[in-house]
Design a protein that fits this description.
By secondary structure, the chain is α/β, with parallel strands linked by helices. It has ten helices and 14 strands. The strands form five sheets. Strands 2-1-14 form a three-stranded mixed β-sheet, with helices on one face. It holds the Pfam family DDAH_eukar.
Length: about 300
């Protein structure tokens, strides 16, 4: 059994505001100088990488290329997911320039170094305007085989049904809105599911029956629910990811913005379940509209044997 997490990250070449995704991502802001944004994003990325490595996490880094310009390459978790039985799943993405990320080397790295026995490719759905953006759209409880999904322009019901049938997951779908009434664009900005703890902004789910279904699903899977407020959702507190460090210890990765907006009792509860790993992503969050979880694509594939 794997005791240390392996993740893939994409080091940015020309990180910038992405107009292809800004229409339904309320977290994005185009108010910083482009040169500053690109340089600062690299600094934030490198510090994040160093922090993960210092905690014993295995990190595969793919260096982005300047052309074609893919401003959101830094968020690789939307394009694919990997699974312990050798399955690679490719997902349809709404942003046209995001689809160009598939040619930037991440998929080739997986095929080169890991055992990919089969691939399920949902990307042809893009031609019909149907999207399912990987582990942005889907927050997966791998042990309980439950996929939590907030419906949005980027998360289509029909594809949720297809995912459930092909992957043998039960899908819990719901509708959610932020404090301004704007639909939440990705499920992973409002909730995270770890081995024993589930931070989730239940307040974003207006329908009380849907809210109870989400809570009960988590509690029935023996997760302690950590309720987040709408203000904390805005602070990226929902965009956390639990991974395992070099000693098999649980690490809950989050941004400085997320950690700072938590109450003392929430921090204490987190520390009972995992070691917080807090990184500074101020520029990436403000311009890209994604945070710590979005930057990590988990690799659950078996690694290829090293030939002598």
């Amino acid at each position: 059994m794997q005791t240390t997490s392996t993740v893939l990250m994409v080091r940015p070449a020309r990180f910038s505001f992405n107009p292809d995704t800004a229409g339904n991502n309320a977290f994005q802001h185009d108010d910083l100088p482009a040169d500053h944004v690109s340089e600062q994003a690299v600094r934030e990325f490198d510090a994040y990488f160093d922090a993960l490595r210092a905690h014993g996490v295995t990190v595969e880094v793919v260096q982005d290329r300047a052309q074609p310009h893919t401003p959101d390459s830094i968020f690789p978790n939307n394009g694919f997911s990997t699974h312990p039985d050798g399955l690679l799943v490719l997902y349809p993405m709404q942003g046209e320039n995001r689809r160009l990320e598939r040619g930037k080397g991440a998929i080739e790295r997986l095929a080169r170094d890991y055992e990919v026995s089969r691939t399920w490719d949902f990307t042809p759905e893009e031609a019909d305007g149907r999207y399912l953006e990987g582990t942005g759209s889907l927050v997966l409880d791998h042990e309980a085989r439950v996929a939590y999904a907030c419906r949005s322009v980027r998360t289509h019901d029909a594809l949720l049904d297809t995912f459930a049938a092909q992957m043998d997951f039960r899908v819990v779908a719901f509708d959610a809105h932020d404090a301004r009434g704007v639909p939440v664009y990705h499920t992973n900005v409002m909730m995270s599911v770890g081995r024993t703890l589930a931070p989730v902004c239940l307040d974003a789910i207006g329908d009380l029956w849907q809210r109870s279904v989400v809570r009960e699903g988590l509690e029935n899977a023996d997760k302690q629910v950590l309720p987040l407020t709408l203000a904390q959702l805005d602070g990226f507190a929902g965009n956390m990811l639990e991974i395992q460090g070099g000693r098999g210890q649980p690490l809950l990765v989050m941004s400085r913005s997320a950690w700072h907006c938590l109450d003392t009792w929430q921090r204490t509860l987190i520390e009972r379940h995992a070691e917080p790993l807090v990184v500074t992503l101020d520029t990436i969050e403000r311009v890209g509209g994604g945070s710590a979880r979005c930057m990590l694509a988990e690799i659950r594939l078996p690694r290829k044997a090293v030939r002598a």
